[in-house]
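Propose amino acids for all 107 sites.
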């Protein structure tokens, strides 16, 4: 019975820590890039696109498709980095609380 009580307490702690992490995530920013830095973007830890910067050399009407593709690649690069960052933070919180890595919590 004690294990269940302890597990519930840890789950409650995990929920609180996840809320805190989500608050911090809104303050984090991750940069993605494509075309060796010719297109860059920043997104928040909550995956909100903040900025896009495009090298002026790319802004030519005949290269619109290339620019569009690089914007998509840069945004996806930043999103992947932000997802990895949040996943790593979640694992750390679970480990710090002594919870099993595969525990599926309802939040």
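Proposal:
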């Amino acid at each position: 019975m004690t294990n269940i009580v302890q597990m519930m307490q840890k789950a409650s702690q995990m929920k609180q820590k996840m809320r805190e992490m989500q608050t911090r995530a809104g303050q984090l920013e991750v940069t993605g890039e494509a075309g060796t830095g010719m297109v860059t973007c920043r997104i928040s830890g909550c995956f909100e696109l903040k900025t896009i910067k495009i090298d002026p050399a790319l802004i030519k009407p005949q290269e619109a498709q290339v620019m569009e593709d690089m914007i998509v690649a840069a945004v996806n690069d930043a999103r992947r980095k932000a997802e990895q960052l949040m996943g790593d933070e979640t694992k750390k919180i679970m480990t710090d609380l002594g919870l099993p890595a595969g525990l599926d919590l309802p939040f």
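Helices lie at 2-27, 64-96. The chain has a mean pLDDT of 81.
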